[in-house]
Write a structure and sequence with these properties.
The complex is a heterodimer. Helices cover 34% and strands 25% of the residues of chain A. By secondary structure, chain A is an alpha/beta fold. Chain A has a 6-stranded mixed β-sheet with strand order 6-7-8-3-9-10. In chain A, helix 13 packs across helix 14 and helix 14 runs parallel beside helix 15. Chain A is globular. Chain A starts with a strand and ends with a helix. Chain B is mostly helical. Chain B has 2 domains: 73 residues, no CATH class; 272 residues, Orthogonal Bundle (ABC transporter involved in vitamin B12 uptake, BtuC), CATH 1.10.3470. Classes of the chains: A alpha/beta, B mainly alpha.
């Protein structure tokens, strides 16, 4: 009977000091199945997978892989036992070829030639067998993200993996690439490979997995066949209470434009054009979603609009003020005018992880006369400010002196949102508001964004999560390679159309096209979709 | 005690103490190898530093220099800059102090001379740091390279000025004429005598008060003002600082000028307080020592004062050691100081991973636990 299971974890227990990261966790993964594991951040998924992959040792419990008991003390042993891991961030050498990357660490002797030949044969066989076609001589940096991921999977299979663990594999993929990945999963499954999928995207769990296990607060709270459950039920199991997956919102009451972007071009530090001649308007009372696969110019767009990087050409009219390449406005000036910006990467930009929460809650506002008396920056007022932000956005723990790094992702994000929203800005730029944020907090954050919109503010929402874009925005523009490759009303948008736009598979549109032309464009998109 | 507090204590107290202990242990081995009894040496050193009034005076006098340079290095560190030009800035600061005094009318009172010399030292030290700062901010030249080059420039400039311009007429020694007595920073033993206390004479002068005032001002500036906030934000996370509207170029200039100015104050203690004339090489060792002091003092004024005291002890006790014990030459004292700098500076974090594993084990989901329990 045991042999039916690829992986059997029994009573896995792991404590980190006072924290019970894994509490008597049991998990059985059937051979040749696709098994999903869901849970909020900090539920213990990563700890469990790290134990399985040999990074950590469990305090108690047994691990059986393919019917055989193991105690892994490092990941080499896990690999030898047939476990392969594809990390969220790829571990590839960019300027090596696919072949060189795959044999890295198993070169097979001092001279590369022999090992390379054997590897090439083996990889061709694997490619044919599993439908994993990649040009073995292409260098990694010429490959798309989807193909790079394929190389990671090949690498694991080449090392003899019978069980693949994938951590958030679809985070960086377009919907079409995701479909392609799922086709590969099917092929792998046909060949008897077991797949463990760790994700927070419930839609994917529902569409691809055979079984799903839910973790909450260090415990396994449910194992079920996927066909017997639903997204709503999974979400409830993850959070421990009912969750609204759909955002409640009234129709938008759109008013005059507060920000007009005209023919904006932005270069990155290497001098490459990352935003190419784009134009759009952002109006009071609406949420404008910016969709696109990560790395298609979203970062540069936000940084240019918030004054962090200089624009190359074009102009932005914001709240009646003009800025262009010759007359830039600095971030602090824009903030005074009434622009707030929640940056995409909270660790790199949104807060200072070494600072206390109260000091991070001051970022961008440290010159505010309300907090300064003369030359003195009043700590009392700084802490009072942080306390009021924390209570307004339910940041936990509500301790202004705690180091920013020690808050969970969701609470860090809430602190940043509180800082930017509570000053009542007229224009709000938000990048990836819910990246790495747990479901309970997502619901809260979305509601706050909608509240801003209903209060007549203009919100620009940049996100790589299509669900988020579709449920929160009123209008959507799609960025692909720095150009706007689609404009659509959120009510007309679906994943398929947005996916096509994100891959720029629809006809290109005139960059100067304004929203008035959007109806015509939509008709065109709809016809094309029908043809497809 | 939560993990944060534990780590803070490891960083602030346990780690520096362990580093010093290691340095002393290795020094003991070196002494033992050259047939010097380490325990006896330690006794002589401590007696030299604390055993008699003059010794204590010298210890605090040296400490004063290290407080200035330690604060100077620390303030640059907080902005994410590594100022290793403290030597040159102290040297040129001395030029500023000296010129201010020599150019004023000798009949003026101390209340003019002392502030003027302090302003001169601040100004020249700050300006000597401004050039590397400008080059870093607007031209991209690395501050470590430029500041160290400026140490050499300062040395050459001072040799030229001392030999050709400022040398006392009719003298062969490259030193300026004596400052008017009104311009001298009062000696502590003189001040004490004025209050009726009798202390052995030593070079210790009121500059030590200036150093302590600077320590308080640096603390206030860094942690209690918006400019200090901007400096620390830039040092901790440059992107976040830019995001918030802080201009890093401006921060580089401000932090480096303050840093150079503080280093320049070494000359107040050395020249205005003790030598009473502009001399060559009065600054040697203090700029570099300041790096070790700043690191060991965790970039915090209180820590810097304590670390500076340790270096003061090593300077004075070491001198006593070289003088008293036949087997110990001046070079061995330098070795000892070098070992302290090695273990407290370069190998600063050697024990840290081990200590943290031992005393504050990782809890990656601590925040989650806090949330659950909240």
């Amino acid at each position: 009977m045991t042999d039916n299971y690829a992986i059997e974890l029994t009573d896995i227990d792991k404590r980190f000091g006072a924290v019970h990261a894994n509490n008597n966790v049991c998990l059985q993964v059937k051979r040749g199945n696709i098994h999903g594991i869901v849970g909020e951040n900090g539920a213990g998924k990563s700890t469990l997978m790290s134990i399985l992959y040999g990074f950590y040792q469990a305090d108690a419990g047994q691990i059986k892989v393919l019917g055989q008991a193991y105690t892994f003390t490092d990941s080499h042993q896990a690999i030898a036992a047939g476990i392969g891991m594809v990390h969220q961030h790829f571990m590839l050498v960019e300027n090596f070829t696919v072949l060189e990357n795959v044999i890295l660490g198993s070169e097979g002797g001092a001279l590369l030639a022999n090992g390379m030949g054997a590897a090439r044969k083996e990889l061709t066989r694997l490619g044919d067998e599993y439908g994993l076609k990649v040009d073995l001589d292409a260098t990694i940096d010429t490959l798309s993200v989807g193909l790079q991921q394929r190389v990671e999977i090949l690498k694991a299979l080449y090392k003899g993996a019978k069980i693949l663990i994938l951590d958030e594999p679809t985070g960086v993929l377009t919907p079409q690439e995701t479909d392609e990945l799922f086709r590969i999963f099917d092929a792998l499954k046909q060949q008897g490979v077991t797949i463990m999928l760790i994700t927070h995207k419930l839609r994917e769990i529902m569409s691809i997995t055979d079984q799903v296990s839910v973790m909450r607060a260090g415990q396994m709270v449910a194992h079920t066949d996927t066909k017997d459950t639903s997204r709503e039920q999974l979400a409830e199991l993850m959070v421990g209470r009912k969750v609204l997956l759909q955002v409640n919102k009234k129709p938008a009451n759109v008013r005059a434009p507060l920000m007009k972007v005209k023919r904006l071009t932005v270069k990155d530090s290497q001098g490459i054009e990352r935003i190419k001649d784009i134009s759009f308007e952002l109006r009071a009372g609406e949420v404008l979603g910016v969709a696109g696969v990560s790395g298609n110019g979203q970062t540069q767009l936000l940084e240019a609009l918030s004054g962090i990087v200089k624009m190359e050409s074009g102009s932005v009219e914001i709240l009646g003020f003009n800025m262009d390449a010759k007359n830039p406005l600095a971030p602090d000036k824009l903030r005074q005018l009434g622009l707030a910006h929640v940056p995409e990467d909270r660790h790199r930009m949104g807060l200072i992880t070494d600072f206390s929460a109260s000091e991070s809650a001051l970022l961008g506002y440290h010159t505010d006369p309300k907090i300064n008396s003369g030359i003195w920056l009043s700590h009392k007022k700084v802490e009072a400010n942080c306390n009021s932000l924390m209570s307004a956005f339910d940041v936990r723990p509500a301790d202004p002196r705690l180091k920013s790094a020690n808050f969970s992702g969701g609470n860090q994000q809430k602190l940043i949102l509180a800082r930017e929203m509570e000053r009542n800005p007229d224009v709000l730029l938000i990048g990836q508001p819910t990246r790495g944020v747990d479901i309970g907090a997502i619901e809260f954050i979305h509601q706050r964004i909608i509240d801003m919109r209903d209060a007549g503010k203009a919100v620009l929402l940049v996100s790589v999560e299509l669900d988020e874009i579709m449920s929160v925005s009123d209008r959507i523009i799609v960025l692909c390679d720095g150009e706007i490759t689609g404009r659509i009303d959120a009510s007309d948008a679906d994943e398929q159309t947005l996916g096509m736009m994100m891959a720029n598979a629809l006809d290109p549109i005139d960059p100067l096209q304004t929203m008035d032309d959007q109806q015509a464009f939509l008709k065109q998109a709809a016809t094309q979709e029908r043809q497809l | 005690m939560n993990r944060d507090t534990r780590i803070a204590w490891i960083n602030r107290l346990i780690l520096p103490l362990l580093n010093i202990f290691t340095a002393f242990a290795v020094t003991a081995v070196v002494f033992w190898l050259i047939d010097v009894n380490p325990i006896e040496a330690a006794q002589v050193l401590l007696y030299g530093a604390f055993g008699y009034e003059e010794g204590i005076g010298y210890t605090i006098y040296y400490t004063t220099n290290f407080i200035f340079t330690g604060l100077a290095v620390a303030i640059a560190f907080h902005a994410g800059l590594f100022n290793i030009g403290g030597e040159g800035q102290a040297y040129v600061g001395g030029l500023g102090a000296g010129l201010a005094i020599l150019m004023l009318d000798p009949s003026l009172g101390a209340w003019v001379f002392i502030p003027a010399s302090i302003i001169g030292a601040l100004l020249f030290g700050g300006l000597w740091a401004l050039i590397p700062a400008y080059l870093q901010a607007y031209r991209g030249s690395h501050i470590v390279i430029t500041t160290i080059m400026f140490n050499f420039l300062a040395a050459s400039l001072m040799v030229y000025l001392m030999v050709h311009v400022l040398r006392e007429t009719g003298q062969m020694t490259p030193q300026s004429e004596l400052f008017p007595t009104n311009a001298w920073m009062p000696f502590v033993h003189d001040v004490a005598a004025g209050f009726g206390y009798s202390i052995e004479a030593s070079p210790l002068n009121l500059s030590v008060i200036l150093a302590l005032v600077c320590a308080v001002l640096v603390w206030f500036f860094l942690w209690q003002t918006r400019w200090g906030y901007a400096i620390r934000a830039t040092g901790k996370n440059g992107s976040a600082a830019v995001y918030s509207g802080i201009k890093p170029k401006r921060i580089i200039i401000i932090a480096m000028c303050i840093s150079g100015a503080l280093a320049g104050l070494v000359s107040i203690n050395e020249l205005v307080g003790y030598q009473h004339r502009l001399i060559m090489d009065f600054h040697l060792g203090y700029g570099f020592g300041g790096i070790a002091v700043a690191l060991m003092g965790r970039k915090h004024p209180v820590g810097i004062i304590m670390a500076a005291l340790l270096f003061g002890i090593l300077y004075q006790g070491g001198a006593e050691l070289a003088f008293e014990m036949s087997g110990v030459s001046r070079d061995i004292v330098v070795v000892m100081q070098g070992l302290v700098i090695l273990f407290c500076g370069a190998l600063e974090y050697m024990y840290r991973p081990w200590l943290i594993r031992r005393l504050a084990p990782v809890k990656p989901q601590a925040a989650w636990a806090a949330e659950v329990s909240a």
